[in-house]
Amino acid sequence: MKKRHLYYSLIAIIFTIITVTVIMTFKVTIDYSKTEKVGDIPYFYLNKGKY
Predict the structure, then answer these.
(1) Res 12: pLDDT
(2) What's this model's pTM, rounded to 2 decimal places?
(3) Which superkingdom does the taxonomy of this entry point to (predicted)?
(4) Where are the domains of the chain?
């Protein structure tokens, strides 16, 4: 029983890591597509902040 429980917890940990990775990738993709749509405005604000 202990070994089976260990396998289940291991699967759960791997599943959680995969889910988090997918969500983060999805968020980055959304942010990137937003930036693409807006164009040079975010870069303009970034450069404005630097100088």
Answers:
(1) 95
(2) 0.49
(3) Bacteria
(4) 2-50
Q: What tokens appear for 21 in the block?
A: 């990775």
Rounded-to-integer distance, Cα 38 and Cα 31, Å: 11
Cβ neighbours around 19 below 10 Å, total:
10
Q: Phi and psi for 39 in degrees, rounded to 5? A: 95, -130
For residues 42, 43, 44, 45, the Cα torsion angle rounded to the nearest 10 degrees is: 50
Residues of the chain whose pLDDT is less than 70? 1, 32-51
Helix (H) / strand (E) element for 7: namely helix 2-38
